Every structure is written in structure tokens, then in C-alpha cells.
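Just curious: can you write whichever protein you like plus the matching C-alpha cells?

***
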Amino acid sequence: MQRYDWGSYDALPRLTGRAPGDQPEAELWFGAHEAAPSGVPAPDGDTDLAVLYEANPEALVGADAVRLFNGRFPLLLKVLAPTKSLSIQCHPSREQALDAPPGTYVDNWPKPEAFVAITPFEAFAGMRDYDEIVTLLPGLDVPELSAIVEWSSGQDEPAVALLEALLTLDLQVRNSLVRSVLGAISDRDDDPAFAAVRRVAQDFPGDIGLVVLLTMTYLTAAPGDYVFVPAGCLHAYQKGIAVEVMANSDNVIRAGLTSKAINIPELLRIVRPRSEPVRRREPVGRVRDYGSDTDYFHLYAVGSGSEPTPIPGAGPRIVLSLLDSSTISSGGTSLELASGDGAFLAPGEEVTVEGTGTLFVAATG
């Protein structure tokens, strides 16, 4: 469990059948990332998935996955429960992570990611088309913002130039600009982003990220909807509950709306303004294949049902039961998973699931 200040006090406890505690709970991790590997109960003493993987990688994930992922455990599955905006952030590609100065990233792996909404899930993801930005921002009638947009439009990469101009403003100029922009949208609802930005401003007053959000695309994913966020895609998740799958990385570069360290030069190096999220509606059927937009992972879900159904995917898989219990079985062995319980399936295991819960399945791509 990751207890960040943007998390919810009751969403994850309610989802996993626990009483709320005195700290917010933001992310529940399932995997073998070195920062927070999942615990594994064992008769001779509890251990964790990272220890088991290090002891015998091929036995755990198979020789193919060890080769394809250069010896790194391939997947990380999470449940997210934000109640206020996450930072404006971007994740690197594999090449960008390797090319970065030492100490820039916590690991040398890319972090493409995707989520499926459990409740309505709000996010800013991807940048608006620059022509739309040129229409929207000057239309706020804030002269200093219009001047920045006009200057940026003459640069080789206008969207990146605009981000750089906003993020590197002198503090006094920045504060004045944010006040003027918030005043300009205070009674406007002709763009769905305006209300969201006003809400974020309550938690981050004066942050230049409030203006940056207006250059981004605001979306709401309905329960069951899938959103893929590729490397280089600027984003800031807002609120709701979602299941998230990603390559096994915790690499984040932040540029605003956070008390954590920001790295504007690195964000400007890795951001890709035309890197856009991929959205898909919930597939029909008990076994739901959300498709794969990357070689790193493939996400499925299996809905409730009393008949044993084969768990989809091949190779190593992490499965997670939510919304009620699920029973997974292989041969003569069964394991009951309450809502919030996860299990790891080694490659080659033929496993079925039945029960009243929804089983999310993270497989390699």
C-alpha cells in the first residue's frame, strides 16, 4: 500500500473489506518492483515476489520473458484511488530512460501504462491539438497569456515551446498569470476543463500547472472503459478508482501540482505533444480482452459467473479480484481471492476462475 497525500481515506479500505485508517491510501501495488514488492505467504516463512524472482527468474516467469525483458520482472499492477490531482507528469521510453543522466530515474525501464475505470475516473491525458490551444488560450482574454502563445507559435516545436515558456516563468509573473487565468474562467463552463481546473486550484493555489492543464485534454472514463497512456504523453489523473497496469517501472518526471521534486528540463526532453491516449469502451462478454498497445503488457478481465472459465493470457500473469470474491483453480488446487487479493500465475499453468467478483488479468504483451 502506498499512502500518498492525494489518496482516499476510505476508497481502498471499502474495496478490500477493511476499516478506514488515519492515513490516505493512494495505490495498492501487485508485483515485484524493488520499491514495494508484493508479500507472498509461505509455510516456511513469508517472503515476497521479488525474492522469489531473484532466486529463479526462469522458473517464475519463463525463459522467454527473462529474455524479452532483459532479466527484469515484466509487470506491475495497481489499484489507484486519487481524490485530488496527481502531478502533471510524463514517463520515459526505454531509450530515454537509458540516455538520461545518472540519478534521473529510479530504474532504467520505460513506463507505458493503461487503466480500466472501476468508478467514473477523471483525468487530463495528452495535449490538445495545437490549433485548439491557439483558439482556447487567447480566447480567455489574458494579454500576458496571449503573448506567450503568440511567441510559442513561431517556434519549431510550438507545444513544447509553450510548455517551456509557462514552466520557466519568473515567480512574480507566474503568480500574476495564474490569478488572471483563474479569474477568466471563474464563471465559464463552455469547456469541461474549466470546472476541473477550478477544483484543482483549491489544492494547488498559484501553481502554474493550473494553466498547463488548459493545454491538455480532459476526459472522464466510465466504469469498464480502458485508457492507454504511452511514453511521452503528458497526464495528470484527477479522481476516481481504477485498475492500472504498466511495465515494471516507477519512473515519473513531474512538472507541477506536487510537493515532490520537479524536473522541467527532463520533462521537456521526453514529452511528445502528439503522444495521445488510446481509449476503448468496455468489451462485451464475460471474458473481456482490452487489447494490447505495447509489447510490455496485455490487460484482460473476467466477469462474475458460476461456471469455471479459463483465465486468458499466456506467460506470467498477475490476477486481481475486485468487487467480490473469485476462486481460481488449477488441477486439484483452489485458491479463494477476496476483493483486493491478488495471485501470481507462472507460465504454462492452466487456471480457471469462478465466483461473484471481477478478475483483472495482467499478462505480458
